[in-house]
Amino acid sequence: MLDITVLSDSKSRAFEQFFDAYGFSCQQMVPALFGTPYCQPSKLLIIPSAFAVRQYYRMLPALEGCRGRIEEFVERGGIVLAYGAGIEGYKYGWLPGAPVYHHIFKIGEQFRQSEVRLLRSACPEGLTFEPGPRNCDAYFTGFNGDVAMATGDGRAVMVHKSLGKGHVIVSGIFDYPDEKLLKRACSR
């Protein structure tokens, strides 16, 4: 079993290089193949930042089409870490909890750091990023789950939902995940 699967149709292999540096095994594949015999099982599923922006990716219809396979992955103990969609008002209807994404800034603008505080340390999302100044691109509303991290003004920048034996984490923080989350997720 592999440690991590990254769903992407980009030629960039930045995630794989990052995970390889920490010693984690990783595969990158298009969403249509996730959960099929062509996809090796893994413990952590990552959806990259700006996945809904056509200038970067063309995978949105395929991603939306694998809702059932993603749900099954989570119910059996997998962890999903989905980053910001990159388009205003996007609803993650293919994820349990279905949060709605709202820009803090627009793509192409200077990155903004927000002071982020941890609200739920007992959940695995509490290991995703350390509290403090973080690069944030969004906040979430309408989520059926828990707010894990928020900005000082109370905007939810990371949300969490438990389902079966697994977890869904949706993040408006676009830093790479903390090594602690990777170790915890990949040791399952």
Topology:
Layout: E1 2-7, H1 14-21, E2 26-29, E3 42-47, H2 60-65, H3 67-75, E4 79-83, E5 90-91, E6 100-103, E7 112-118, E8 132-136, E9 138-141, E10 146-151, E11 156-163, E12 166-171, H4 179-186
Parallel strand pairs: 1-2, 1-3, 3-4, 4-12
Antiparallel strand pairs: 5-6, 6-9, 7-8, 7-10, 10-11, 11-12
Protein name: Glutamine amidotransferase domain-containing protein
Description:
This protein is an alpha/beta fold. The protein has one domain: Class I glutamine amidotransferase (GATase) domain (Rossmann fold), CATH 3.40.50.880. About 15% of the residues lie in helices and about 35% in strands. The protein has 4 helices and 12 strands. It has helices at about 15-20, 60-65, 65-75, 180-185; strands spanning about 1-5, 25-30, 40-45, 80-85, 90, 100-105, 110-120, 130-135, 140, 145-150, 155-165, 165-170. A 9-stranded mixed β-sheet has the order 2-1-3-4-12-11-10-7-8, sandwiched between helices. It has a 3-stranded antiparallel β-sheet with strand order 5-6-9, with no helix packed on it. Strand 10 (about 145-150) and strand 11 (about 155-165) form a beta hairpin. The protein is globular and about 45 Å long. The termini are close together. About 40% of the residues are buried. The model has no long low-confidence stretch (mean pLDDT about 85). This is Glutamine amidotransferase domain-containing protein. It comes from Methanocella paludicola (strain DSM 17711 / JCM 13418 / NBRC 101707 / SANAE).
